[in-house]
Amino acid sequence: MPSDRPLRIAFLNSERPAARDAAQRLVDRYGTCPREEADVLVVLGGDGFMLHTLHENSDRKVPVFGLHFGEVGFLMNRFSEDDLVERIRKAASFTLKPLRMRVTTLDGAVHTGLAINEVALLRQSSQAAHLVIHVNGRQRVARLIADGALVATAAGSTAYNLSAHGPILPLGTDAVVLTPISPFRPRRWRGAVLPSAATIEFEVLNPERRPVSATADYDEVRDVVKVEVEQADDAEHVLLFDPEHSLDERILAEQFL
User: Fold this and answer.
1) Taking a C-beta distance cutoff of 8 angstroms, is the pair 148, 211 a contact?
2) β-strand 200-204 against 212-216: which pairing, if any?
3) What is the rounded distance in angstroms from the CA atom of residue 44 to the CA atom of residue 13?
4) 60-107, pLDDT tens digit by residue?
């Protein structure tokens, strides 16, 4: 953060009335600037709006400081109108590296997307998905019969992955989580923790009869036949947190709930 001049802040808010009103009060108090000129983005909303903001600003390296006006607020700080500039200057930073999804569909088209939380494969019909899983070119699961599977980052390990009974990864762990969703076979396989540099490939068996969709956070592609997932080393996001309530402490605390 620049310390030799006033901090240039751009405020972004969700459509919740409380977030919209609070953003206007902050603008009146601290001023604002276009996001293209900002030193920091201050985001008022919930985790969903934070993810949307990060995706919308993926081409810029500007840090993001979230203020909670949503349901969970795992990626957000507590809201207060006071001492905002001082809080931002004292904030602890955390760098998120997203996952890159490369999808091939039944018609031969190729789609790509970035996921900050997870890449998930889900059955599109009443038929269970049948998936073959390769890790770094080696087959690890010959046939997973399940509702689907997902690959989550450390930051995303407390989101969909946790509800699918996957493990939580502390921040700083050089790993990703591979978790089946409602698996039927193999019955005893509950997933794996893999190096973040791993390349995971999913092959959909009988995709015409057992259609599967793939999502990178909220970006969905339907009727997939193959999905490749790897860490996007050329993309990153910087989140700012109050030192007493940092993201790594939240992830640690989630393991004792």
Assistant:
1) no
2) unpaired
3) 5
4) 789 999 999 876 677 899 999 999 999 999 999 888 899 999 999 999
CA–CA dist 110, 93 (Å, integer): 35
Are 153 and 216 part of one and the same domain?
yes
So which residues are the catalytic ones? 47
The kind and range of the H/E element at 30 are helix 17-30
Please state the pTM of the whole predicted model. Answer: 0.85
pLDDT per position as a tens digit, 38-60: 999 999 999 889 999 998 887 77
Kindly report the CA angle at 218 between 136 and 118, in degrees rounded to 5?
30
C-alpha torsion 156→158→164→169, nearest 10: 80
CATH assignment of the domain containing 107: 2.60.200.30
> Can you give the residue range of the structural domain that contains 171?
99-231
Q: Is residue 2 part of a domain?
A: no
Residues 6+ apart with CB under 8 A from 210: 123, 125, 127, 128, 129, 130, 204
3-state secondary structure of 24: helix
